[in-house]
Amino acid sequence: MDMASYIVFLLSFSSLLSVAVSRDFSIIGYSPDDLQYDSKLCLLFEKWCIENGKVYDNGLATEKNRRFQIFKENLRIIHAHNLGNHSYWLGLNKFSDMTHEEFQAKLTGLKVDKAVAMGRKDYSFFQDNQADLKAIPSSLDWRQKGAVTPVKDQGSCGGCWAFSATGSVEGINKIVTGNLISVSEQELIDCDTRMDHGCEGGLMQNAFDFIVRNRGIDSEDDYPYKGSQGPCDRSKQNSRVVTIDGYKEVAANSDNALLQAVANQPVSVAIEAAGSAFQLYAGGVFTGSCGTQVNHGVLIVGYGTDGGLDYWIVKNSWGPAWGESGYIRMQRNAGQPGGLCSINTLPSYAVKRGIPGPSPPTPPPEMCDRFSRCPSSSTCCCRFQILRFCLSWGCCGMQSAVCCSDHVHCCPADHPICKQDAGLCLKDSKNLTGVNLMVGKPATFNFPS
């Protein structure tokens, strides 16, 4: 970097810093103080390298310096965004030393074949029917129902399509049989080669076809993920731990049809994971700009509303350190047929027939007082109080939650500090990394016996 560019860089950060100092907010991964001097940025970069296991060839000092320049540019993008009035925020993550072109080349991998592009073949019964929406709950999270395995990491292999497909298979298998089994992406990477291309890309519908033809798929434990394509292990391929009967495709370009499908099970979708905002996303409801060239397969595991914004809960395959513990909340009902980032264009899900296992007994509700109750496994928080009397109760959707002083939000017990201005729950006042604030729902009136 020449002297003129360096001065412009520092001046731009100084102007942003003056605004940041006037506001009290938490930023993920750095503090405004880190931006004052280039020496502090160097220390921040070194700390980030250690935390993310980044080691550059000592014989190539120019490579480390190039990564530092990319890191600074990404930090500038993060900081400028976080100073604005947005429904989501950005932060440093393990991709912060990558250009967006590098990021897309390594971390996506969806390939839409000609057969799918020319016309989708097997529509589900989920169509754009307003009448069918009446019985659907206003929010749903399949994680809370035990139908979602922990977030996985595809690494630098373009196998997103395999992770999206296995997520759908795992979800419907749990719903039908009662057993949550993590199934093998590596089997798909190695063995599903008729139309898919391993780490070079593939498509969820092809993966479903492979599992049906193979009469099942092995478990993750038996055929673990390696992050690269190898020869198909035929003995593992013949180990059929989980089976499906087929797959269906949801009517394209319809928020309502996709909502009906997700209300029944986790659904595989294709998106365009484009733009630095997606690469550096750290939390909130994502409303960033993206296009229609789908390049990434992910899994919708639920939906809800936050601050008047409807959203999808999307499970990614970039590890738990990205986004909201590996998830992103993407705007739903974005006012465009294809949906934000074209999320409505290619939804599909695995089909498994069978008789669901017995439902567990329903636990008793949480009684706030004689006249108000909340669902089980939740916490009562007073929404409106006069003197010592609570006149209106709300329900925080977790046990032993901490009710915030604004009478609207709540935090989990392991992140008990409410930071409403940043939309975060913190572990302690010194650690600015946290989880999202939760919004309580009104309690249900209880007719006293």
Description:
- 41% of the residues are buried.
- The chain has three domains: 3-85, no CATH class; 106-351, Cathepsin B, Chain A, CATH 3.90.70; 366-445, no CATH class.
- The chain has helices at 3-21, 38-51, 61-82, 100-107, 114-118, 160-177, 185-191, 204-213, 234-237, 255-262, 276-279, and strands at residues 88-90, 140-141, 246-249, 267-271, 281-286, 296-306, 309-315, 327-331, 348-351, 366-369, 372-374, 379-386, 389-396, 402-403, 409-411, 417-419, 424-426, 434-436, 438-439, 441-442, 444-445.
- Residues 3-27, 114-123 and 356-360 have low confidence and may be disordered.
- Helices cover 27% and strands 20% of the residues.
- By secondary structure, the chain is of the alpha+beta class.
